[in-house]
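Obj.: predict assembly geometry.
Materials: sequence records (below).
Method: joint structure prediction, all chains together.
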Amino acid sequence: MNILQHIGHYVLKFFRTVGRLVLFTLTAVSHCVRPPFYPRAILRQMLEIGYFSLPVVGLTTIFAGMVLALQSYTGFSRFSAEGAIANVVIISITRELGPVLAGLMVTGRIGASMAAELGTMRVTEQVDALTTLSTNPFKYLVAPRLIAGVLMLPLLVFIGDIIGVLGGYLVAVYQLNFNPSNYIQSSWEAMETMDVLSGLVKATVFGFIISLMGCYHGYSSKGGAQGVGKATTDSVVSASILILCFNFILTVLFFEK
Amino acid sequence: MTETPKIRIRDLHKTFGPKVVLDGLDLDVMPGESVVIIGGSGTGKSVTLKCTLGLMEPDSGTIEVDGESVVGLNARERERVNHKFSMLFQSAALFDSLPVWENVAFGPIADKTVTRKQGKDLAIEKLAQVGMPAEVADLFPSELSGGMQKRVGLARAIAGDPEIIFFDEPTTGLDPIMADVINDLIVKVTRELGSTGLSITHDMASARKIADRIAMLYQGKIIWQGPADSIDDCDNEYVQQFINGRADGPIEMAVRK
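Observations (raw structure tokens):
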């Protein structure tokens, strides 16, 4: 009986959480498309998510591209297939590594900060203060973050793709002594519009997930500093898992024959 | 013909799990009147304010503002009703990402009743009303002392010329002199605006100074109410125990002996 009670308790808790999240998402999305809008708040978030995340994403993708070129050379040279390195680098970066690594890095940087900021605002009654000033907190706090996340992640990933491919080029040309023009030509021939587009669509979804998880956990936090800390951890963990999960789902949708 | 109360609360109930916080609360606040609710911690004072502002939904009962029922309003209707209100929070609840002037002029700028430029002038004018110099306008809340934050909170509360102002523990955490300064300011600004005031506090000096009428909340009900200057002569033993701060009496604290 006791075990059944426990199972029932956790099942109910799970469905309550899912229900709350679905309601939060629907409310947040509806506020993204209905005026009034807060352009200054949106621009500030775009700057925070896009511009200030650029160094982190750039560094991550350049090293990913470099390691990819180096490791594929080690593997492919056994079969005298070194020519495929450019192919491997560009497909891996644009389809998978660019969006996933950028998504995970931005989760750590932005998702955590959103949850901490909104969580602190919640526990210090700043969110209530917004309501008393006739400002809907969803419109002022959540919608700008969602809009900025959805717009900026694809842009970040696009730049990350270029930097990642450049990383592969640098290793291939300066360490593995590939011919630069041959490498560029191979890369160009290997690049498919669908590869890049699928990565950008993934980035859009990841941007939504990161902002949504950061806002949801921050907005729902309670209980002072400990609650804010928990919200921050939960937002990073849940966004990271959802990114990997949706990456698989989107890959299947895009590329399963 | 009797005057319509600015706020009319009838048979208000609110529970949190097994804990009954409000248990049939009745209260009227007349236009231009300043009512102070006193009572110990956890007796439902803040919950009463939050239910009136729509930050919480009561389990049952009615709340009317200017004769209009405000329980269960949708978000848009709530925003309209909340234009009549403003609130000074216990922690001031200033937005720490915004400078002081933007905090003060937040409501009027969000309502688009003033431009940002006019908002800054308005903020400086309101800061002057609470005795703060114009130089404070460009500081951030984290650069202010607790008393200064309370004064900025008060300036924000009066910036939109509200019809009703709520004061949540306005003197908590302040030294006695600063507490008296805040009390004087509350009396001054509400008289100047002709606003209706509803305050909650357990600071009797503050209650005596700012109240026209005092109501005592105990176990979710108003157990006594009357003119502020008659409280010392009332024969309610609960009130007498509370205002004299005696440990012995009918009010039993949940403290293990």
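Conclusions so far: Chain B is about 35% helix and 25% strand.
To do: check interface contacts against the pulldown list.
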